[in-house]
Design a protein that fits this description.
Elements (H helix, E strand, L loop, with lengths): L1 H39 L2 E7 L7 H16 L4 E7 L23 H9 L3 E9 L7 H9 L13 E8 L6 H13 L4 E2 L11 E4 L10 H21 L1
Helix pairs in contact: 2-6
C-alpha cells in the first residue's frame, strides 16, 4: 500500500513538472514570436462614406470614428475609409437587371475590400436626406445584398453614422435604416458606447460643411470608434 502511494506521488510530480516545463517553454516562445503573432492577428475596420460630396461632413465624421478606433490598439488595427463619391454604384445588378448601355460599375472594387476576411467591422455613414439615408447609401446597401447569398458578413460587427442639417435632423432614422439592412446579413450591430451610449454617431452640419464645432457629435463618433474597435479585438 505504501509503495502504491509513493508511486502515485512520483507520477504526480512528473506530470506537474512536465506542465511547468511546458509553461516556461510557452512563455519563452511567446516572447520570441510576439511581434509575428500580433502581425498575423491584425484586424481591419472599414468605413464607407455614402455621400455624393467627397471629403465633406460624412467623410469627416467617419475619420473621427476611425482615428478613435485605431488609437485603441495601433499595432493591431488597420482602418480604411472608402468614399463612394465619384464612383458609379448602379442598382440594376441588385435587381437582376442589366446595366444601361455605356454605364460602368465600380461596386466590385468596393466589395472586394469589404469581403476580405481581415475586415472585422463595417461602419456605414450617410447624410440625412429628408429623414432617410442618401440615394447612394441605399444603392450601396442594395448591392451589398450579393454577400447575403452566402452570408459572407455574418458575425462581423457593424456600426452607423449620420450627419444632419440640424441637431435633431433625422440622424436616428438613418441609423435605424442602416442597422436594419445590416441585420439582414447577420451582422452584430454596435452603438456608440459610453458615455453617450446610444445608437451610433450623430453629427450636425450647421450649413458650413464644418463639423469640428459639434462637440457632442464628435464624441459620439469617437465613442463608436472605440467601442467597435474594443469588441473587434475580442472577436478577432
Amino acid at each position: 500500500m505504501d509503495r502504491m502511494v509513493k508511486r502515485r506521488k512520483v507520477l504526480q510530480g512528473l506530470v506537474f513538472g512536465s506542465a511547468g516545463a511546458g509553461l516556461v517553454f510557452a512563455e519563452t516562445r511567446s516572447a520570441q514570436e510576439e511581434t509575428q503573432v500580433l502581425a498575423q492577428r491584425k484586424i481591419r475596420i472599414v468605413a464607407v462614406s455614402c455621400s455624393c460630396r467627397p471629403g465633406k461632413t460624412t467623410a469627416q465624421g467617419l475619420r473621427y470614428v476611425l482615428e478613435a478606433a485605431q488609437a485603441v490598439a495601433p499595432d493591431r488595427i488597420e482602418t480604411v475609409l472608402i468614399e463612394l463619391a465619384g464612383l458609379r454604384i448602379p442598382v440594376e445588378p441588385a435587381l437582376g437587371l442589366p446595366l444601361l448601355p455605356g454605364d460602368k460599375d465600380d461596386f466590385p472594387q468596393v466589395a472586394e475590400q469589404i469581403a476580405s476576411p481581415q475586415v472585422k467591422a463595417l461602419i456605414v455613414g450617410s447624410p440625412v436626406h429628408y429623414g432617410n439615408m442618401s440615394t447612394l447609401c441605399k444603392a450601396f446597401l442594395d448591392r451589398l445584398g450579393q454577400f447575403r447569398k452566402e452570408f459572407v458578413l455574418s458575425g462581423r460587427l457593424a456600426g452607423a453614422l449620420a450627419v444632419g442639417g440640424a441637431r435633431n435632423g433625422g440622424q436616428e432614422y438613418v441609423l435605424e435604416s442602416i442597422h436594419r439592412a445590416l441585420l439582414c446579413h447577420e451582422m452584430m450591430i454596435v452603438g456608440d458606447g459610453r458615455p453617450t451610449g446610444h445608437f451610433g454617431a450623430t453629427l450636425w452640419n450647421p450649413g458650413t460643411d464644418d463639423i469640428s464645432g459639434d462637440e457632442f457629435g464628435i464624441k459620439t463618433a469617437q465613442n463608436l470608434g472605440r467601442h467597435i474597435a474594443t469588441l473587434a479585438l475580442r472577436c478577432g
